[in-house]
Amino acid sequence: MASLSLQAADVDTVLKAEKDKTSAAQASQKRVDALADQADELFQSFKQVNKQIENLQVYNAQLEAQLADQRSTLADLASSIDSAAQMERQLAPLTLKMIASLEQFVALDIPFLVEERQARLERLRSNQSRADLSSAEKFRQVLEAYKIESEYGTRIDSYPETLEIDGQRREVNILRVGRIALLYQTADQQVTAVWDKQAKNWLQLEGSDYRQAVAQGIRIARRQAAVDLLQLPIPAPEVAQ
User: Fold this and answer.
1) Handedness of CA 71, 73, 77, 80 (dihedral sign)
2) What average pLDDT does range 222-237 have in this prediction?
3) pTM value surpassing 0.70
4) What are the distances in angstroms from CA 152 to CA 109, 110, 179, 181?
5) Cα–chain center distance at 51
6) What is the residue-averaged pLDDT of the chain?
7) How many CB atoms lie within 10 A of CB 220?
8) pLDDT at 226 (0 to 100)
9) Are 195 and 111 in contact (CB under 8 A)?
10) Three-class secondary structure assignment of the chain
11) From CA 220, how far away is CA 92, in angstroms rounded?
């Protein structure tokens, strides 16, 4: 009986030991599984971080390229500003010289639209001191004045004017044919005259032919008659010595 009891105790001991081993193995497996899960999570996190790093590297490369382009653009802009400033410094004296040349030209020209042309020149001079106008705008205004003066030489024009004739102020009609001839005729057509460029005064014309030609020229200039050939007293060009 004692032998059977001993054997039963050994079996229980063995079974308990196996049970303990099984429990320990299961616990170890759980720990291994948990560690494996943690390792997988860490690996996935590592992959995500690496992906973010790659994206940041690409973004940084693009940003660096943009910054380099912006630096180049800023350098070009600074160069353009310097060039514009230099050009503006050169533009101001050029504009003044052009105004002076235009003033001299008008002073030597035949005396037509005197008040209008002088007012334009005075306006150009006055605008040079205006701070609200850029140098480019001042230069543009001078170019516009040159254009207007140039067009005077290609047009026939007529307008009323008051002149002193034989000591009396009289209303006349001015006839200008480009810069070739400048004439006037009184409203009653009794007095007709041409501007003498050499003597710089008015020379009265005699004869009905000139009177009729000037009257016809005035009508043509005012679009009151069709364009036709006119026989006008035009001074002969000077011969170079």
Assistant:
1) positive
2) 73
3) no
4) 11, 11, 7, 12
5) 49
6) 81
7) 18
8) 83
9) yes
10) CHHHHHHHHHHHHHHHHHHHHHHHHHHHHHHHHHHHHHHHHHHHHHHHHHHHHHHHHHHHHHHHHHHHHHHHHHHHHHHHHHHHHHHHHHHHHHHHHHHHHHHHHHHHCCCCCHHHHHHHHHHHHHHCCCCCCCHHHHHHHHHHHHHHHHHHCCCEEEEEEEEEECCEEEEEEEEEECCCEEEEEECCCCCEEEEECCCCEEEECCCHHHHHHHHHHHHHHCCCCCCCCCCCCCCCCCCCC
11) 42
User: What is the distance between the alpha carbons of residues 132 and 13, in angstroms, rounded to a whole number?
Assistant: 110
- Give the tens place of pLDDT for each residue, 157-176: 999 999 988 888 999 999 99
Could you identify the residue written with the tokens 């005012």? Answer: 222
The yes-or-no verdict on residue 231 having pLDDT over 80 is no
User: What letter represents residue 155's amino acid?
Assistant: R
Residue given tokens 């303990």 in the structure block: 20
